[in-house]
Design brief:
Thiol Ester Dehydrase, Chain A; alpha+beta; 6 strands; about 40% helix
Length: about 180
C-alpha cells in the first residue's frame, strides 16, 4: 500500500508543463481560437514566444502558406501577425478578468512596410500595461473604450532588431450586456 501511495505522490508532483515549451499553453490557445473563430490565424501557425504583463511577442514562420511570389512574407500575413500580437494580451485579460464578457475588435489599422520580410517574423507589442488599463476601464464603466497599440515586426535571423514593418491598431473594447 505504501508503494501505491508513493507513486500517487510522485504523480501529483509531475506536471506536463515541465516538458512543454515555455508558452505552449498560450500558443495552443491562439491556435484553437484561430481554428474555431478566425481560420487564417490557424493557417499561418503563430507561436507565442513571450507573454508578460508588459509585452507580447508572436512568431509567424515564413513558409509556403505565408510567402508571396517574391519569397517574402505576404502583407496579409504580416497584418494577421500584428493582429495576434496586439490582441492576445487583451484576449487573455478579458478571459481572466471579465470571463469573456467584453467584445474585442480592431477599429482601424495602419501599416508601414519598411523592408521585405524574408524569414520568420517576430511581432512585438509592448503596450501591455495600457491594454490592462483599457480592459479594467471597460469593465468598470461598461462603455466602449479605444486604445491605439503599436506592433513592430522584425526578422531577427536576418536583420536583428531592425523593423521590417510597423503597425498601429486601434483596439476597441465594449462590455457585453448580460
Amino acid at each position: 500500500m505504501s508503494r501505491l501511495t508513493s507513486l500517487r505522490e510522485q504523480a501529483k508532483k509531475f506536471s506536463l508543463s515541465q516538458f512543454l515549451p515555455l508558452y505552449a499553453k498560450e500558443t495552443l490557445f491562439l491556435r484553437i481560437f484561430g481554428l474555431t473563430q478566425v481560420p487564417v490565424l490557424f493557417l499561418i501557425s503563430p507561436t507565442v514566444e513571450e507573454l508578460t504583463p508588459e509585452r507580447c511577442v508572436v512568431r509567424v514562420p515564413l513558409n509556403r502558406r505565408t510567402k508571396n511570389h517574391l519569397k517574402s512574407m505576404y502583407f496579409g500575413v504580416l497584418a494577421a501577425g500584428a493582429d495576434c500580437a496586439g490582441g492576445l494580451m487583451a484576449m487573455k485579460l478579458i478571459q481572466d478578468r471579465a470571463k469573456g464578457r467584453v467584445s474585442l475588435i480592431f477599429k482601424d489599422f495602419q501599416a508601414q512596410f519598411l523592408r521585405r520580410a524574408e524569414g520568420d517574423v517576430l511581432f512585438t507589442c509592448e503596450d501591455g500595461r495600457a491594454i490592462e488599463e483599457l480592459v479594467n476601464r471597460t469593465i468598470e464603466t461598461g462603455e466602449r473604450q479605444n486604445l491605439s497599440v503599436k506592433v513592430v515586426a522584425t526578422v531577427p535571423t536576418l536583420l536583428g532588431q531592425e523593423p521590417v514593418a510597423e503597425f498601429r491598431l486601434t483596439l476597441s473594447l465594449k462590455k457585453l450586456k448580460k
